[in-house]
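Subject: design request, 430 residues
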């Protein structure tokens, strides 16, 4: 075993000495787990039945909650029956995923029929919802009855970067790469104490509690994780239907836990991309400039995957040094770090340049860049505060992080921006 690695190291040295391999520094990026939240929760709803009665209004009242609907025709014509409602939900930022055309046990189908049930139907969902006015991009699948096999996984993987199954507690650890074609979820059923257990599962994923005695051999709890929840109808029918009150409590609980409550594909893409990004290498290009490139791990991923990253201390140490102001460049835009040294980059662009900030940029060194400090040092006219509603619609300018008194009571977003600094966005209540 060790001999194998020695040979690899020796070949690496040889290639480097011959000038075949470019000089490579330490891995530059470390992705911030779960988009900077205390874990993540993805609420997924299967079959498209008993979901448009209570959920749309509930979700409208909680704009920080975005969920996933896995649609199937269920041997009928569910897509057209509820097409307008699901198109509306899609336009609000909720995900539409694939749950196969006729909801059969996919393991019993021939490869040809599998393609019709799964791949053709993914395209059909897009077309139908498009005809109802929603631009839907299907990137995830959920298996009917969680029936999976090597062949099912293979066909699903031809058209989706991630596939939801259900066989356990639905929890996924940040630093362990899962099987993307068989992602576990935690299924709701109206057992005694089910409501309390659901809230506890959200606490566990947010790493709230004492886990010193947690089971060491089965998916141990060691840091904030991603929990994938599987629900069916939201109604008073019991069994695998959850009541509207319990559903609302679970959404609220996840938000109060400071979790990232986002669709299955959104969290899944961030999770999958981080394994690529954290392994990416920087190649020196002349003085004080490095380029990082990477490949997409799958062709069917969301069109935009914003990633929050920091530069690793090792990379800074080996390259620029702590005292320099460093910026990133992507697609012709300069990206500045926020007050904690976090950059937001676009994974789908597949390339970033890291360089010293030009002297004229008037930036403070890397570690102390702070729009907050700038504000307290000199409350100057260079900072603009934009007031937005929770959907991101611009309502006008304001002074500081305060909502003008003439606005109705509620939650708002205020974005502060100044030339040469990363914008700061805050949620503010009036
Ligand atoms: Zn189903």
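Subject: RE: design request

Done. Sequence follows.
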């Amino acid at each position: 075993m060790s001999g194998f690695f020695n040979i690899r190291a020796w070949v690496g040295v040889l290639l480097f000495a011959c000038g075949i391999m470019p000089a490579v520094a330490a891995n530059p990026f470390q992705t911030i787990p779960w988009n900077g939240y205390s874990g993540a929760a993805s609420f997924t709803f299967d079959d498209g039945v008993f979901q448009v009665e209570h959920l749309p209004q509930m979700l409208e009242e909680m704009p920080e909650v975005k969920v996933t609907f896995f649609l199937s025709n269920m041997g009928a014509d569910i897509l057209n029956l509820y097409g307008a409602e699901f198109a509306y939900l899609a336009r609000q930022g909720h995900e539409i995923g694939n749950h196969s055309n006729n909801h059969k046990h996919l393991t019993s189908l021939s490869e040809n029929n599998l393609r019709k049930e799964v791949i053709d139907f993914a395209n059909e969902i897009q077309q139908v919802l498009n005809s109802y006015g929603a631009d839907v991009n299907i990137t995830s699948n959920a298996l009917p009855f969680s029936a999976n096999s090597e062949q099912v996984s293979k066909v699903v993987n031809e058209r989706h970067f991630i596939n939801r199954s259900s066989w356990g507690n639905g929890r996924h650890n940040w630093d362990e790469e899962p099987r993307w074609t068989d992602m576990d979820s935690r299924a709701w059923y109206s057992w005694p104490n089910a409501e309390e257990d659901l809230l506890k599962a959200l606490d566990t994923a947010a790493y709230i509690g004492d886990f010193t005695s947690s089971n060491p051999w089965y998916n141990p709890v060691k840091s904030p994780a991603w929990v994938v929840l599987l629900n069916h109808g939201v109604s008073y029918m019991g069994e695998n239907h959850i009541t509207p009150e319990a559903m609302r409590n679970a959404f609220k609980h996840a938000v109060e836990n400071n979790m990232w409550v986002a669709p299955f594909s959104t969290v899944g893409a961030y999770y999958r991309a981080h394994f690529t990004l954290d392994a990416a290498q920087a190649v020196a290009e002349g003085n004080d400039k490095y380029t990082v490139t990477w490949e997409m791990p799958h062709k069917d991923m969301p069109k935009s995957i914003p990633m929050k990253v920091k530069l690793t201390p090792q990379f800074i140490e080996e390259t620029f040094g702590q005292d320099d102001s460093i910026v990133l460049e992507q697609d012709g835009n300069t990206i500045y770090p926020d007050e904690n040294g976090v950059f937001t980059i676009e994974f789908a662009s597949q390339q970033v340049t890291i360089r010293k900030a030009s002297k004229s940029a008037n930036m403070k060194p890397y570690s102390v860049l702070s729009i907050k400090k700038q504000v307290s040092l000199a409350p100057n006219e260079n900072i603009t505060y934009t007031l937005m509603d929770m959907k991101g619609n611009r309502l006008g300018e304001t002074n500081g992080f305060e909502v003008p008194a003439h606005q109705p009571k509620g939650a708002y977003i205020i974005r502060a921006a100044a030339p040469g600094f990363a914008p700061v966005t805050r949620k503010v209540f009036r």
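Residues 22-31+271-367 form one domain.
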